[in-house]
Amino acid sequence: MASKVPKVKLNNGLEVPIFGLGTWKSKPGEVVQAVKDAIDVGYRHIDGAFVYGNEKEVGAGIAAKIADGTVKREDLWVTSKLWNSYHRPDLVEKNIRASLSYLGLKYVDLYLIHWPVGYKEDLENFPKDAEGNILFSDVDYLDTWKAMEEVQKKGLAKTIGLSNFNKAQISRILENCTIKPAVLQIECHPYLNQKKLIDFAHSKGIAVTAYSPLGSPDRPWAQPGDPQLLDDSKLLALSKKYQKTPAQILLRYQVDRGVIVIPKSVTKARIQQNIDIFDFKLSPEDIAYIDTFDVNGRLCPLATAVDHKYHPFTNDEY
Ligand SMILES: NC(=O)C1=CN([C@@H]2O[C@H](COP(=O)(O)OP(=O)(O)OC[C@H]3O[C@@H](n4cnc5c(N)ncnc54)[C@H](OP(=O)(O)O)[C@@H]3O)[C@@H](O)[C@H]2O)C=CC1
Ligand SMILES: CC(=O)C(C)=O
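That is the input. Now the predicted structure with butane-2,3-dione docked in place:
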């Protein structure tokens, strides 16, 4: 089945589907089926990461749909991310090879530095001292980027990019790189619309992917009483106006801004609902209206690493 999802052309000529499936928090026991359901209804882009701990099952879902002839490997866009404990240049290839081994793939389409902050290099994803504080590494992300360029040159990743980097950090990479980042993945939804950072990235030829586009209601640190984006009364009014669900309005908001979007779901009906956004558009006035919902409402602050010298959200405007 041909997918109805449009593609975004990257600065290296590759094309990425503007819509994909997120897999953070998708339990190993449910994500195999979620990936299969997603591919069955036309998803061709899967977003994952080493640290999500489920790449083996994501890979099993992909393998099943290749084996039954629904898709070929080259029809799919698979993203993975370098975890913070592997920033030291000699560990970058080790971490991507681990992801490839779990996924059962020879290459990923996109490999991102997950965060600009490095953690102490050992076998733990979250190395801690006796008081429970994360142990940092001071590896410069410029050195990590050089190793990312090498994994692209070796063909382990078709293209490389950044996640959770701020404007100053992206600029520093651009001033010192051989291969330009093709994609920047950042938290993005109406409560944190990221307009300045998106405009900056686009002005540099870097495509942007919005993570937590539905407000990540299942994030592990959510507290009772936290604002629920999906229940926002202004959003519900737009949902009524367009006769689309609140989630579909949130996803279309990103697509209409030229932003790639990767909602997570393990629920078959929602997986279907979320991709059903290519038969309508938001008006420019409604996009501008949704832009006014911004409350600097960051949901993924990486609070455990605010003291890291490269923490992206503490010292810079955006
Ligand atoms: N680079 C980075 O640092 C980060 C990357 N990401 C990536 O972005 C992806 C998406 O972000 P994420 O934080 O997971 O959150 P999302 O904003 O995608 O929200 C996911 C939640 O919304 C629910 N949901 C999905 N569809 C609907 C719907 N149509 N109606 C109502 N509820 C719905 C899901 O429930 P259910 O599954 O039960 O259906 C789940 O609880 C991640 O999974 C990951 O791949 C996310 C955070 C950080
Ligand atoms: C979900 C994720 O990618 C985080 C918190 O790094």
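The pocket of NDP (ligand 1) is lined by residues 22-25, 47, 114, 163-164, 185, 211-219, 230, 245, 247, 262-267, 270, 273-274, 300 (CB under 6 Å).
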